[in-house]
Write a structure and sequence with these properties.
Elements: E1 3-6, E2 21-22, E3 27-32, E4 40-45, E5 51-56, E6 65-70, E7 77-78, E8 88-93, E9 99-104, E10 111-116, E11 123-124, E12 132-137, E13 143-148, E14 160-165, E15 176-177, E16 186-190, E17 196-202, E18 221-227, E19 234-235, E20 240-241, E21 244-245, E22 247-253, E23 259-266, E24 269-276, E25 282-284, E26 291-296, E27 303-309, E28 312-319, E29 323-324
Antiparallel strand pairs: 1-3, 2-29, 3-28, 4-5, 5-6, 6-7, 8-9, 9-10, 10-11, 12-13, 13-14, 14-15, 16-17, 17-18, 18-19, 20-21, 22-23, 23-24, 24-25, 26-27, 27-28
Length: 362
């Protein structure tokens, strides 16, 4: 059953530093879409909003497959049929809704495949060696961003972001490398205008790589963005909550380009957060402490995500997300009055005022 949370006062304490708030009178509806003993995750809504693709282990035999169900609920349809012990995961849609990308471990390595919406044979999207993961189309459908370890196949953190043509990558039509970082960039998501790619990477300081704190193995994941043609990355998230460092993953850029939804973990809590791209301010969309892997709907009014209890994942959707900026504060007027001349010396000591608590993070 859906549950309504009106006006977000639930988050009022955490939202004290935010500049965007839900519109007055709006209510966000949180609806659970799956509920059984199997795990469903990697939610991906279709461009027309009618279908939801996801990863599930409901077929058993040690494999995961891609399934499709109506976004309003209904029978599920198995889309992929990977051999036993192989994995199909992370479905994403072509902008025309006629096909989907997914990742499979067939061939004893990860590669990106395209499969028709109706099902059928899947086409490998890259002929290059190495591991290629999480392909996602640009909004105009001309490019596919993904991450690959082709230049460092034996390095645990050897991945970087690449962009290939929508027709796929061949030996004569190679993908363009977009990042060249040590923090293992992954999970790319396109901005609405196609000029930027947001991604997740470990916060890696090469100058401290020989210490436990600076080594990439112990570094935290955060959200970055980079020009889609390559360039210098810009870090978007960092900080701590209640003295605990945060770790940010699974970014998803909103269709209007104003927001990035992502998963945030601090301590044992995991929730879906929203980043205002213009101001870099962040606030939580969920507060249950068990929510991960957000993905925007194509109309920008919903965010799909998974809840995690033990090894079980269920699909949820937060609907009716509408935001408006609060009115700007008027600039303080400068006084033209002359300051009065002191006639008495100040007291030798004055009671100290309490300092405001520091705000950590962005």
């Amino acid at each position: 059953m859906p549950r309504r949370i009106a006006a977000i006062p639930l988050f009022s304490l955490l939202m004290a530093v935010c500049v965007l708030l839900p519109e007055r009178g709006q209510a966000t509806t949180f609806t659970k879409l799956t509920s059984d003993t199997t795990s469903e995750t990697d939610a991906s809504p279709s461009p027309d909003g009618r279908w939801l693709a996801f990863t599930s282990n409901r077929g058993g035999r040690g494999a995961t497959q891609i399934y499709i169900m109506p976004t309003e609920g209904g029978p599920m349809r198995q889309l992929t049929h990977e051999p036993d012990s192989n994995r199909a995961a992370t479905p994403t849609w072509a902008p025309d809704g006629k096909s989907l990308l997914f990742v499979s471990t067939r061939g004893k390595r990860y590669n990106i495949y395209s499969i028709p919406f109706e099902g059928g044979d899947a086409k490998a999207m890259s002929e290059m060696p190495g591991s290629h993961r999480y392909g996602t189309y640009s909004r105009d459908g001309s490019k596919i961003a993904f991450y690959s370890n082709r230049l460092a196949p034996t390095d645990l953190f050897g991945f970087n972001i690449y962009v290939m043509n929508a027709s796929g990558e061949t030996m004569t039509d190679l993908a363009k490398q977009v990042t060249n970082e040590k923090g293992s960039p992954g999970h790319p998501t396109w901005s609405a205008d196609g000029k930027w790619i947001a991604y997740v990477a470990k916060e890696f300081d090469a100058a401290k790589q020989n210490t436990m704190q600076g080594n990439v193995l112990f570094a935290k994941y955060h959200i970055y963005k980079v020009p889609s043609t390559g360039g210098k990355p810009i870090q978007l998230t960092s900080g701590s909550i209640d003295g605990q460092p945060v770790e940010d993953t699974w970014p998803s850029w909103s269709p209007d380009g104003k927001w990035i939804a992502y998963g945030r973990q601090y301590g044992l809590r995991r929730d879906v957060w929203l980043l205002d791209v213009a101001t870099n301010k962040t606030f939580p969309l969920t507060t249950e402490g068990i929510c991960v892997k957000p993905t925007w709907s194509y109309d920008g009014r919903s965010v799909y995500y998974s809840s995690v209890i033990g090894k079980n994942h269920d699909l949820w959707v937060a609907r009716d997300l509408t935001f408006t900026p609060p009115p700007a504060k008027p600039a303080a007027k400068k006084s033209t009055a002359k300051k009065p001349t002191a006639t008495k010396p100040p007291p030798k000591s004055a009671p100290a005022s309490k300092a405001a608590p520091p705000v950590t993070g962005k």
